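re: ur question from earlier - yeah i can do the single chain one, its not a big deal. heres the input i used so u can compare w yours
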Amino acid sequence: MTTDTTPTIRPRTPEDLPACAEALAAVHRHDGYPLDWPADPGGWLARASGLGAWVVELDGRLAGHVSLAPGGDGDLAPALWHTPATAVVSRLFVTPQARGHCLGTLLLDRAAAESRRLRLHPLLDVLTTDTAATALYEHLGWARLATTEQHWGPSRTVTIHSYAAPNPPEEPFHAFE
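and the output i got, formated as tokens:
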């Protein structure tokens, strides 16, 4: 018996939220993401998907997730970008057992492509302690806009890197078409 290791990315459906919450729990146990476990993980994932959300499946199992939304309260990167035409990539994760298949890259590229389709520039914020995510973004050419502190409540401060996706290659100019 062989297994299909070709990943499939598709839009997330409401029916996916329980499996997404289970996958997120595995990521939280392994990596500590998200830093603060939400009381309603499915709702936490759904709230950040105003412009879209996608899942990736590997071997027939949900293996990762990404969301795209307009910037909101607490999003630092949009305030640093030179135009308000932005979208925030968030809730990006890949289950520990599915790593090593470039699924994070596939999900990030899918969210960035949708952002650009909407004529928005993709941005994101990440905790500086999430070194694996930071390494991925920088490897893919995302530009660090700033590193800033953010207050999460009255007695807690975290340090955040803000990133912007690289500009897409220019479309070729065809003067005679």
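Helices lie at 17-31, 41-47, 77-80, 103-117, 131-139. not sure if urs matches, ping me
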